[in-house]
Amino acid sequence: MSLAPLLAAPFAVQLHVFTVVPAFFLGSWLIFFSRKGARRHRLAGYIYLALMTVTSIAVLFVHTIMPDGPFYGFSPVHLFVPLTLAGVVGALYYARRHNIKAHRKSMLGVYIGGLLIAGSLTLLPGRIMHSVFFGN
Asked: Which domains does the chain have, with CATH numbers?
């Protein structure tokens, strides 16, 4: 494992990783270990959603997969951005209205889609995080 590829990456990539890593751990704690509805859960939830918002916006400035593609550098991975942001808005909306079932669904969507699926795609060969974890 070497952080050199990450340290040499553009600022948008570094900001994305800087926000997504704590979001992953905080999201895992929120889903699996926190007492739902408690003050600590709500505070951590706001922090988690803020991190996911920043990480989603930061990735809009990352164009490493298809830099010369037909969509101005955007790739299919960027489809997770509006889905994640919609999940963030939905999670807040439903929590404020005490619709726990819809809130849970939104939060799981952000976690599974925005972190697990999109995150696993960063480990594919040729991606920066693949180089960090597995070398060239």
From this structure: 4-134 (1.20.120)
CA 81/CA 74 separation, integer angstroms: 11
Query: Could you tell me the pTM of the whole model?
Result: 0.91
Residue 56 to residue 19: CA distance in whole angstroms:
9
Q: Is the pLDDT of residue 96 over 90?
A: yes
Q: How far is CA 98 from CA 42, 51, 59, 68, 76, in A?
A: 12, 22, 31, 45, 34
Residue 132, both tokens: 């960090």
Using one digit for the tens of pLDDT, what is the confidence trace for 99-119?
Answer: 999 999 999 999 999 999 999
Residue 123 has pLDDT above 80, yes or no: yes
Half-sphere exposure of 123 (CA within 13 A, CB side): 9
